[in-house]
Design goal:
The chain is α+β, with helices and mostly antiparallel strands and about 1050 residues long. The protein folds into 4 domains: about 400 residues, Multidrug efflux transporter AcrB transmembrane domain (Multidrug efflux transporter AcrB transmembrane fold, Up-down Bundle), CATH 1.20.1640.10; about 90 residues, Multidrug efflux transporter AcrB pore domain (Alpha-Beta Plaits, 2-Layer Sandwich); about 180 residues, Multidrug efflux transporter AcrB TolC docking domain, DN and DC subdomains, CATH 3.30.2090; about 100 residues, Multidrug efflux transporter AcrB pore domain (Alpha-Beta Plaits, 2-Layer Sandwich), CATH 3.30.70.1430. Helix content is about 50%, strand content about 20%. It contains 35 helices and 32 strands. The strands form 8 sheets. Strands 1, 2, 3, 4, 22, 23, 30, 31 and 32 form a 9-stranded antiparallel sheet that branches. The protein has a 6-stranded antiparallel sheet with strand order 15-14-19-20-18-21, covered by helices on one side. Strand 25 and strand 26 form a beta hairpin. It is elongated.
C-alpha cells in the first residue's frame, strides 16, 4: 500500500522511472548478445598430440594413456574422453562447473608439458586448447576456391594466409584446413638407379639433410666492422636440390641426387578430399571460443572477408557456407514474433473483457516496460538473448499482463462504486497489493529449485528462471506504481448506464467496435449468471465433485505411459548430415568416387529448388584436423546438405526419403543420418545419435564381440534405425617381421630397416623432418625423400625395396630380412575415463527416444558381459534421465517452497494446502494436452509444468484471499465463497486467456519451445475450468462442512 500511495503522490517520479527503464532497457537490448542457447559454464580442455604415421594402438598406449593419467591429476576433473587414431591423440578433460576455465587450462597445460619428457622421442609437443562441449560443430564453413589455383595452392592460401587472419577475429577458432593438398618438396627416388649404384633411399635422405640446412653461421669482427656471416646452407630453388652430391663413387666422381632421384615441388600423398557441389575445394571450419556469441562471430567474419580478400592472390574466392547463424537468427526472430503476436492477442482479450481501450493501453504501457527491465537485468548479469531467455519472456507475457489486469479490473470495480479515479486507483491497488505480491513471490519461488539442478537442466533452466524472475519483479513494481498512476490519469469516473446509453444514442459517430464490446460484455454477464447457478449445484454436490475430480486425476495419470520422452524437441535446422562408411581400408580415391555417385543420387531424390548446397568431406588428414572430424580413415566421409529456406519438406522427411534410396543403390555402404543441427549437437555434446551404448573393457576384441551382439539386438527394436558400431577393428594391416639376428649379421639394425620402409611408403619427413623456405612467400615446407606413390603397387614391390645402413652400403632386399603377414588393426580407439570403449549408435525414427531406449535396455538385459566388462547407456538418454530426475526433484521442491511462502503470507497452514489443489488439476490438463497433440515429455515441457504451478496457484490465491476477507466482514462461509468466486471470475478468465493466448503462437509454431507453450496452455485451461468449481467446493467442505447450500446468493 505504501508503494501505491508514494506513486500516486509523486506521479512525475513514476514517469521519470518509466522513461529511465525505456532508455536503459532499449540500450541493453541492443547490446545484449544473441545466441541459440545460453553460455555453457562447464570448462573443458582439449590436448592434441601428433606423431605422424604411428599406429592407433601405439598412440593409445604410449601417448594417449600417459596424457590421460598425467592431466587427470588436475584439480576438479569430472571425466575424461579420448580418441587415438593413426598419428593423432585427442584427450579431453571435462571439469566441474565450479572450476575456473582459466585455472583448468593452466593446470592441464602445465601437466601436459611436464609429461613431454616421458613421451616417445619424435612426438610433436602437445597442443592444449580450450574446448566448448556445446560448440562442437562449426558455426560456418569458409570455402576457398579459385579458377586459376590448384588444390595445393588453395591449401597454401588457406593455411598460411587465411587461417591466421581468421584467428584474429574476436571469438573465432579456425584450427584446421580441410581438403586440398599439402605442399611438400620431395625427392622421388628411383629404385633401379639406386640399386645400380649400391645406394638406398636413406642415402638420399642424408644428402638432403646435409646440404639443406637451417644453421646460423655467426658473426665476425674485421677491423672496425662487425659482419654477419651467411653461408649458402639453404638452396633458393627446388631445382638446385637435384645437384646435391649423394656420394663419391669408386672412380672419384660424384653421384648427384638427380642421378638416382628427381626433386619436385609437389604435394603430400592426399588422404583428405573436400567437394563443394561436386568440385574439389578447400574449406576452414569456423568454431566459436567458449562464451563467444554465434551471431557476433559470424557477423564479424562476414565483415572481415572483403579486407582479407584484398590481401589474397587475385582470383581467390571466399564464401561463408553452412551458416548456422541463419538458423539462430530465424529461431530468435520467430520467438520475438510469437511473443509480440501473443501479447497482441492477449491485449485484444483484455479489451473485450474490460471494454476499455484506455485500460488496454495502460497494460500495453506496463508490459514492454516489464520486458525492458528484464533486459536490463539480463545485460547486467552477463546473460545473452537466446531461446531460453526469450522463451521465458514469451512465457511470462500472460503473467506480466495478469498483474496489471488485476489492478485495472479492481479499479473498474471501485469506479463502478462511484469513487473518483484517484481514490479508486489508490484503494483498488492497495486492496490487491498483498495477493498480487503473493502471486509474484509464488511464481518466482517455483524457479528457485534451479539452483539444485545439474547438467543440461541447470544449463537451460537458469537463464529462463532469471528472465522470468526479473520480468515478474519489475512487473509487480510497475503494477503498483505506473498502473495506478495511469488509472488515476486516464480512467474516467463511472456514470450510470442510462446516461451512457443516451449519450451513445446521441453520438452518431460511435463505431461498430463499441457495439461489439458491449455485446461481448452482455455475453459475459449472461455467462457469469449461469456460472453462479452452476456453482450452487457444485457446492451442493461437493463431495461427489471432489471425489470425481480425484478419480479424474488418477485416470489422467494413464496418459503418462503413452506420452513419449525426449531430451529436447527435434526441430528442422535446414541441414542434413549423411555419414558414409565403406569397408575398412578403402582407398580415399575409391571413397571419393562412391561419394560422387551418392551425391548424384541425392540430387535425383531431392528437387533442385530445395537443395542449396552439398559439401562432402572424405577421409582424414592425420594432423590437427583429425581432432575436429568424425571420420576415422580414408573409408569414411560425411556429406552435408544445406536446404533452401522455402523448402517443400523438412530435413527429417528428406532423411527418411534418402534412407531406403541410398541403401538400395549402395548395399555395401553403411549410412547414418543426423538432422539435429546446432541445437541438438550442443545439447548432445556432439554425439552423432541420441542412442549411445558403450561397452567398456580392456580387450577390444572381447568388447567388439559384445558390441556386435548388442547391435544385432538393437536392430530388432521398433523405431531404431542407422544402428552401427563406431570403432572398427578390421582395418587391413601388413605386418613386417624383421629378423633382427639376420639383420645384425648384415650390418643392419631395426632402425635402419624401418626408416627405409617409411621413406619408401610415406617419406623421410616422418622421422627426419627438414625444411625448405620458399623465399618468394617466406613460408617453410617439409622436404624429404620417398618413392612415387605409383612405385609401390603390390606387396611384391614392397618386398623388393633395397635396404642400406651406415655399416651396410650394399643394398639388401627387404624380403631377405623380414617375413610378411596380413592382419587387421583398429583405425580408432576411444576411452572413457581411461577405459577402452566401443560405441554402438542408433537413431530413432517414428518413435520417442525414451520408450525406444527402455525397450533397448530390455532387449539387452540378459547379456552377461565377462568380468571387467560393462555395458552402459550414455549420451542423450543419460542426459535426459539425469535432467528429468533433477526436474522432478525441482518440481517437488517448488511446491514445498510455494506452500511455505503462502503459509507466511496467509498466516495459515491450511489455506495454502487448499490453494495447492490447483497443481494436480493443472497437471491433468498438461498430460491431456501433451497426449492429444502428440507432444513428447521433454525439458521444455517440464519447464512449462513448473511455470504452470505458479499460474494455477495464482488463480486460487485471489479467490481464497477474497473469501477470507469477506468472511471477516461478517458473511457466512457459503456467502463469502460464492461472492468471491463471482467477483474473481472476470480476472480469473482474463488471466487464463491472457496466458493461453500469449502462448498460442508459440504452441502452434512447431519450434523447440512448442512443448513448453502446450504444457502451460493445457495446465492453465484445466486449472481454470476445474478451480472455478473445485476450489469453492473444497473451501466450503473444509471451512464449513455442515453447511447446506441455498439458492439465494
Amino acid at each position: 500500500m505504501g508503494l501505491v500511495r508514494f506513486a500516486l503522490r509523486n506521479p512525475h517520479a513514476v514517469v521519470v522511472m518509466a522513461l529511465t527503464i525505456l532508455l536503459i532497457g532499449v540500450t541493453s537490448f541492443i547490446r545484449t548478445p544473441a545466441d541459440i542457447l545460453p553460455t555453457f559454464k562447464t570448462p573443458a580442455v582439449q590436448i592434441l598430440t601428433l606423431y605422424p604415421g604411428m599406429p592407433a594402438d601405439v598412440m593409445e598406449a604410449d601417448i594417449t594413456t600417459r596424457l590421460e593419467r598425467w592431466t587427470g591429476q588436475a584439480n576438479g576433473v569430472a571425466r575424461q574422453e579420448s580418441k587415438s587414431m593413426v598419428g593423432v591423440s585427442v584427450v579431453r578433460d571435462f571439469f566441474r562447473p565450479d572450476i575456473d576455465p582459466n585455472t583448468a587450462m593452466s593446470q592441464v597445460t602445465s601437466l601436459a608439458m611436464s609429461d613431454l619428457y616421458y613421451l616417445p622421442p619424435g612426438t610433436i609437443p602437445p597442443m592444449v586448447m580450450p574446448f566448448d562441449p556445446t560448440a562442437n560443430i562449426p558455426l560456418a564453413l569458409l570455402s576457398v576456391s579459385s579458377p586459376q589455383l590448384d588444390e595445393t595452392a588453395l591449401y597454401d592460401v588457406a593455411y598460411f594466409q587465411l587461417r591466421n587472419r581468421l584467428q584474429g577475429i574476436s571469438g573465432v577458432i579456425a584450427p584446421a584446413v580441410y581438403g586440398g593438398k599439402l605442399r611438400r618438396i620431395l625427392a622421388y627416388v628411383d629404385r633401379d638407379r639406386l640399386a645400380s649404384r649400391n645406394l638406398s633411399p636413406m642415402d638420399v635422405v642424408q644428402a638432403i639433410r646435409s646440404y639443406n640446412l637451417m644453421i646460423p653461421t655467426g658473426n665476425a669482427k674485421f677491423g672496425d666492422k662487425d659482419y654477419q656471416i651467411n653461408a649458402n646452407s639453404m638452396v633458393p630453388r627446388v631445382e638446385d636440390i637435384n645437384d646435391f652430391p649423394v656420394q663419391i663413387n669408386a672412380n672419384g666422381a660424384p653421384i648427384f641426387l638427380k642421378d638416382v632421384a628427381q626433386a619436385e615441388d609437389t604435394a603430400q600423398i592426399q588422404t583428405n578430399v573436400v567437394r563443394i557441389n561436386g568440385r574439389r575445394q578447400v574449406y576452414i571450419p569456423i568454431y566459436r571460443q567458449p562464451g563467444a556469441n554465434t551471431i557476433a562471430v559470424v557477423d564479424a567474419l562476414k565483415d572481415t572477408i572483403n579486407d582479407i580478400l584484398s590481401r589474397l592472390p587475385k582470383g581467390v574466392n571466399l564464401n561463408v557456407v553452412m551458416d548456422q547463424s541463419v538458423y539462430v537468427r530465424e529461431a530468435i526472430a520467430n520467438l520475438q514474433h510469437e511473443g509480440i503476436l501473443g501479447a497482441a492477442l492477449a491485449a485484444l482479450m483484455v479489451l473485450l473483457f474490460l471494454g476499455s481501450p484506455r485500460s488496454t493501453g495502460i497494460i500495453l504501457i506496463s508490459l514492454p516496460l516489464s520486458i525492458l527491465a528484464a533486459f536490463i537485468g539480463l545485460y547486467a548479469a552477463g546473460q545473452s538473448i537466446n531461446s531460453m531467455t526469450l522463451g521465458g519472456l514469451a512465457l511470462a507475457v500472460g503473467l506480466l499482463m495478469d498483474q496489471a489486469i488485476i489492478v485495472i479490473e479492481n479499479t473498474h470495480r471501485h469506479l463502478h462504486m462511484g469513487k473518483p479515479p484517484l481514490q479508486a486507483a489508490l484503494e483498488a491497488a492497495g486492496e490487491v497489493s498483498t495477493p498480487v505480491l503473493v502471486i509474484t513471490v509464488t511464481i518466482v519461488v517455483t524457479f528457485f529449485p534451479v539452483v539444485f539442478l545439474t547438467g543440461i537442466g541447470q544449463f537451460l533452466f537458469t537463464p529462463l528462471a532469471i528472465s522470468v524472475a526479473l520480468a515478474l519483479g519489475a512487473s509487480y513494481v510497475l503494477s503498483m506504481t505506473v498502473v495506478p498512476v495511469c488509472c488515476a490519469w486516464f480512467l474516467k469516473a463511472h456514470r450510470p448506464a442510462v446516461e451512457n446509453e443516451r449519450e451513445t444514442a446521441r453520438r452518431k459517430w460511435v463505431v461498430t467496435a463499441d457495439g461489439l464490446l458491449r455485446a461481448f460484455d452482455r455475453v459475459y454477464l449472461r455467462f457469469r449468471s449461469r456460472y453462479e447457478r452452476w456453482l450452487v449445484g457444485a457446492l451442493r454436490r461437493r463431495r461427489l465433485l471432489l471425489g470425481g475430480t480425484g478419480a479424474a486425476f488418477a485416470a489422467s495419470l494413464l496418459f503418462l505411459p503413452a506420452i513419449g520422452q525426449e531430451l529436447f524437441p527435434h526441430v528442422d535446422a535446414g541441414q542434413l548430415m549423411v555419414r558414409v562408411r565403406l569397408p575398412s581400408g578403402t582407398r580415399v580415391e575409391k571413397t571419393e568416387a562412391v561419394v560422387g555417385d551418392i551425391e548424384q543420387t541425392i540430387r535425383e531424390e531431392i528437387p533442385a529448388r530445395d537443395l542449396q548446397m552439398i559439401i562432402s568431406n572424405i577421409g582424414v588428414l592425420y594432423d590437427w584436423p583429425a581432432a575436429y572430424t568424425s571420420n576415422s580413415g580414408p573409408m569414411d566421409a560425411f556429406i552435408n546438405l544445406q536446404f533452401t529456406e522455402h523448402r517443400s519438406r523438412t530435413a527429417q522427411e528428406y532423411a527418411a526419403r534418402l534412407r531406403p534410396a541410398l541403401q538400395e543403390r549402395f548395399p555395401g555402404v553403411e549410412f547414418s543420418y543426423d538432422t539435429g543441427g546446432l541445437l541438438t549437437a550442443a545439447l548432445n555434446f556432439g554425439l552423432p545419435s541420441p542412442i549411445n551404448i558403450q561397452v567398456e573393457g580392456n580387450r577390444l576384441d572381447v568388447a567388439a564381440e559384445l558390441a556386435e551382439e548388442i547391435r544385432a539386438r538393437i536392430t530388432r527394436v521398433a523405431g531404431t534405425t542407422d544402428v552401427r558400431i563406431q570403432q572398427k577393428l578390421d582395418y587391413p594391416q601388413i605386418g613386417i617381421n624383421v629378423d633382427r639376428i639376420k639383420a645384425a649379421y648384415l650390418g643392419l639394425t631395426q632402425e635402419d630397416v624401418v626408416k627405409n620402409v617409411v621413406t619408401t611408403l610415406n617419406s623421410s619427413i616422418n622421422f627426419a623432418p627438414a625444411f625448405w623456405i620458399d623465399h618468394r612467400n617466406g613460408n617453410h615446407y617439409f622436404i624429404g625423400a620417398q618413392y612415387r606413390e605409383s612405385a609401390i603397387r603390390s606387396l611384391e614391390t614392397l618386398e623388393n625395396i633395397p635396404i642400406t645402413g651406415p655399416r651396410q652400403r650394399t643394398p639388401v632386399l627387404l624380403k631377405d630380412l623380414a617375413t610378411f603377414d596380413r592382419t587387421s588393426a583398429p583405425a580408432e580407439i576411444n576411452h572413457h575415463n581411461i577405459t577402452r570403449v566401443i560405441d554402438i549408435y542408433a537413431n530413432v525414427a517414428g518413435r520417442d527416444v525414451g520408450r525406444t531406449a527402455a525397450e533397448i535396455e530390455r532387449a539387452i538385459a540378459d547379456i552377461k558381459p565377462p568380468e571387467g566388462y560393462f555395458i552402459r547407456m550414455r549420451g542423450e538418454v543419460a542426459s535426459m534421465r539425469e535432467s528429468f530426475a533433477s526436474l522432478g526433484f525441482g518440481l517437488l521442491m517448488a511446491m514445498a517452497l510455494v506452500y511455505l511462502v503462502m503459509v507466511v503470507l496467509f498466516r495459515s497452514f491450511l489455506d495454502p494446502l487448499i490453494v495447492l489443489v490447483a497443481v494436480p488439476l493443472g497437471l491433468m490438463g498438461v498430460l491431456a494436452m501433451l497426449f492429444v497433440t502428440g507432444t513428447h515429455l521433454s525439458i521444455p515441457a517440464l519447464m512449462g509444468v513448473m511455470m504452470m504451478i505458479g499460474i494455477a496457484v495464482s488463480f486460487n490465491v485471489l479467490l481464497t484471499d477474497l473469501a477470507n476477507r469477506l468472511r471477516q466482514e461478517g458473511r457466512t462461509w457459503e456467502e463469502a465463497i460464492r461472492a468471491a468466486a463471482s467477483i474473481r471470475l472476470r480476472p480469473k478468465l482474463m488471466t487464463a486467456l491472457a496466458a493461453a493466448l500469449g502462448l498460442a503462437p508459440m504452441a502452434v509454431a512447431g519450434s523447440a519451445n512448442a512443448p513448453l507453450a502446450r504444457a502451460v496452455i493445457g495446465g492453465v485451461i484445466a486449472a481454470t475450468v476445474l478451480t472455478m468449481f473445485v476450489l469453492p467446493a473444497l473451501l466450503l467442505a473444509v471451512k464449513d462442512p455442515a453447511t447446506e447450500v441455498s439458492d439465494e446468493g
